[in-house]
UniProtKB/TrEMBL annotation:
It is found in: Endoplasmic reticulum membrane; Golgi apparatus membrane. Keywords: Endoplasmic reticulum, Golgi apparatus, Lipid metabolism, Lipid transport, Membrane, Sphingolipid metabolism, Transmembrane, Transmembrane helix, Transport. One of its GO terms (cellular component) is Golgi membrane. This is Protein ARV. It comes from the Eukaryota. It is a multi-pass membrane protein. Mediator of sterol homeostasis involved in sterol uptake, trafficking and distribution into membranes. One of its GO terms (biological process) is intracellular sterol transport. Belongs to the ARV1 family. It comes from Aspergillus oryzae (strain 3.042) (Yellow koji mold). It holds the Pfam family Arv1. PANTHER family: ARV1, PROTEIN ARV1.
């Protein structure tokens, strides 16, 4: 059973869908569940882009780490770190190439 990321209270579902729910790219069709205990959204990150989630994970916000999908969070971190390493290596290769071209 999913939990509220704000207070860890069990909720039946994190969001509900309605018409045109398959078109999540428009941000339509999803209604976030309000936690019965703290009255906040049970998981506000449902509508967030993974970059925002990653930033909140790096900032060690407990709500981001309390999500139901820790494996997904870890895969986001690993993907982001590997992309960063790739970019840094590419920049380094470009700089080395410029040195040898002169
Ligand atoms: Zn709550």
């Amino acid at each position: 059973m999913p939990i509220c990321i704000e207070c860890s209270y069990p909720v039946s579902h994190l969001y509900s869908t309605y018409s045109r729910a398959d078109d999540r790219s428009l941000g339509k069709g999803v209604r976030l569940t309000q936690c019965p205990r703290c009255q906040r959204f049970a998981d506000k990150y449902v509508e967030y882009d993974f970059v925002v989630i990653f930033i909140d994970l790096v900032l060690i916000k407990p709500q981001a780490w309390r999500r139901q999908r820790p494996i997904r969070c870890m895969s986001i971190i690993l993907h982001s770190l590997s992309s960063l390493v790739y970019c840094l290596l590419k920049i380094e290769i470009l700089q080395l190439t410029k040195l040898f071209v002169r």
